Amino acid sequence: MMSRKLKIGITCYPTLGGSGVVATELGKLLAERGHEIHFITHSIPFRLGQFHKNIFYHEVEVNQYYVFRYPPYDLSLASKMAQVAAMQNLDLLHVHYAVPHAVCAFLAKQMMNGSGLKTVTTLHGTDITVLAQDESLKSLIRLAINESDAVTAVSKDLIRETRELMDITRDIDLTYNFVDKRVYYPRNTGTMRSDYALPQEKILMHISNFRPVKRVSDVIDIFRRVNEHVPSKLLLVGEGPELSRIQFQIQEMGLESRVHFLGKQEDVAQIISLADLLLLPSEKESFGLVALEAMGCGVPTIGSNAGGIPELVAHEQTGFLSAVGDTADMARNAVRLLTNEAMYEQFREACIKRSCEEFCNDRITLEYEKIYYRVLGLE
Ligand code: GMT
């Protein structure tokens, strides 16, 4: 029974964020395992890559009727989900992010009444920690969660927070995020390193969407402190609303010559492999996918102990975690690690081992598969 290949519709935010990356990578891995995957999104997922015979893409188009002041994307998505489910005879819809995707899946299931279509919702963090704080959305999110045939969340901390904030008692499966170990391993960076740093300098890196929650000013402060003891360079990867303020802060501190802005980058594994340390001092992080991407490449994380980060980064083994905002402690830990070669080597090996054993693609894909078979009664 377990080997029946499934037809799965996947909806995610295709153009940004860790949730889109995880959803797309999961779809690709499920397709490799013989399942038929139908992405139902407004644009083609940015990490989809090469053609694969088991992967299909269905574009959600929003009609601009003159009566609409706000064209209803959510309703178009729900209709498209139902249409694809009927046309392709889907077994289930797996939606990433509660708003609006889980709500749309609920509507699609109602439209497909009696067809046996199941829905699985994966919560990624901000859908609960930010959006569910809005009382006007809370009941809708609660409905979508309660009506899903299975709900998963990417950390224990997110499960706890969902229960507390949403007053939800139903089962929520823990499915950690993962990295594909065929992609995330310590890459040979050749001469690339010398483009950014001198041989005696260390490279610190921060990758994010530069939103306030990432506390990028803390990144700069940690770097300033580290640089007083260990000659180093800071590589900033990504773009977002805080970027211009950060540029100003760097100028004010006179650090321009020591910081490189790399903008948005596609080949994250190659870039992270340049780093000696990843900095992730976030205010809140349900998981912190970038710390896992770094871990896969053998790069320890110095960061905060917010949200789900401690479930991923093993404190004193694959990195060091401090209280949010304690940049002095974060800098002390960074210096400790960068100036002790034996300790650094130990951390590096622990990173590679932990990412392969605890967060590897094979393991997490099987966990999702098991959930699909369970909701379909095919266990
Ligand atoms: O806030 C972000 O960085 C984007 C957001 C998203 O929707 O992709 O990230 C959330 O989901 C990621 C994938 O599961 C997690 O790794 C991030 O920790 C989480 N962000 C927050 O909780 C702030």
TrEMBL record:
InterPro entries: Glyco_trans_1, Glyco_trans_4-like_N, Glycosyltransferase_grp1, Thiol_BshA. One of its GO terms (molecular function) is glycosyltransferase activity. Residues 199-352 form the Glycosyl transferase family domain. Residues 17-180 form the Glycosyltransferase subfamily 4-like N-terminal domain. It comes from the Bacteria. SUPFAM superfamilies: UDP-Glycosyltransferase/glycogen phosphorylase. GO terms for biological process: bacillithiol biosynthetic process. Coiled coil: none annotated. PANTHER family: SULFOQUINOVOSYL TRANSFERASE SQD2. This is N-acetyl-alpha-D-glucosaminyl L-malate synthase BshA. It comes from Paenibacillus albicereus.
